[in-house]
Amino acid sequence: MIGMANPASVYCVEQGGESIIKQDKDGSEYGICKFKDGKEVDEWEFYRKNHDLTEKGVPEINKK
């Protein structure tokens, strides 16, 4: 879907980080989440670590 936000980038910003797109030597791009303390993490790794994904791939954000 064109114009749909990257959920990992959105989650990064919601958690107080800054979504930054970097480029590998081969030209491929990837996102990092940079926090005010200088810590940087891969956006998707951060997202997956903090979300349970159902079998359909839909995040269960409010799961307790």
Structure description:
With 64 residues, the chain is of the alpha+beta class. The chain has one domain (1-64). It contains two helices and three strands. The protein has helices at 7-14, 43-49; strands spanning 18-23, 29-34, 40-42. It has a three-stranded antiparallel β-sheet. A hairpin with a 5-residue loop joins β2 and β3 (40-42). α1 crosses α2. It starts with 6 loop residues before the first helix and ends in a 15-residue tail after the last helix.
Spell out the key features of this protein.
64 residues, alpha+beta, three-stranded antiparallel β-sheet, 2 helices, 3 strands, globular
Task: Describe the structure concisely for a colleague.
By secondary structure, the protein is α+β, with helices and mostly antiparallel strands. Helix content is 23%, strand content 23%. The model has no long low-confidence stretch (mean pLDDT 86).
Order of helical and strand elements: HEEEH
Structural domains: how many: 1
| Terminal residue distance | 30 Å
Structural class: alpha+beta
Strand order of the largest sheet: 1-2-3
Main sheet record? 3 strands, antiparallel
Low-confidence stretches: none
Query: What's the total helix number?
Result: 2
User: Got a strand count?
Assistant: 3
Provide mean pLDDT, rounded.
Answer: 86
Shape: globular
Helix content: 10-25%
| Percentage of residues in strands | 15-25%
Secondary structure layout:
Layout: H1 7-14, E1 18-23, E2 29-34, E3 40-42, H2 43-49
Antiparallel strand pairs: 1-2, 2-3
